[in-house]
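Morning!

This is the sequence you dropped in the shared folder:
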Amino acid sequence: MPRFTPFAAALLAGGALLAAMSPGLATEQVVMAPAAAVTEPATGLKETAIFAGGCFWGVEGVFSHVKGVISATSGYAGGKASTADYEMVSSGTTGHAESVRVVFDPDQVNYADLLRIYFSVVADPTLVNRQGPDTGTQYRSALFPTTPAQQKVARAYIDQLTAAHVYSRPIATRIENGQAFFPAEAYHQDFMARNPTYPYIVHNDRPKVEALKRLFPKNWKA
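The structure's back. Tokens below.
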């Protein structure tokens, strides 16, 4: 179900909208995942990675605070360009997942480091087609590698976490290759930074950013 419509977004800008919250549903578990055994060699060139892990507001909010991240953009991946629209994606029938495109400097933060942060504080990788209060295929946990090297590192890391029994349930995170990314509507971009007191953000997403700062102080940027 959409968190709000474009009309509701206009109301939000005036401070007149309260988020629909689901009491009793806990935020995603925080787990200190181990460092990856397989990493990419630094190329000296900026790279792009795409992550899906529930509502893109929180995913973007966390990665925006990671040192070495140049930009984080909310959007859609996994479906067609013609259905890369918030209300259509919210139907759960488009194949898209709410995703975030992260452009980063690999000399400051490796793709494997981003994976570690993702599996530790961004998403609960054991949940199938849901995160927090949101349910549907558009909220699945998924990685969209943009290079063969990223695909190799992602697969190796999931295998590493599985072998180490880091989680009490099987990892459901999917690796989806060859998927295009489509930026979301303007009102979704930097949503957490622009709306820090929005109830959905306070309840579901701010704890993720706080966990990043607490667990990964060397990767933190204000």
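Headline: Confidence is low (pLDDT under 50) at residues 5-26.

More detail when I'm at my desk.
O.
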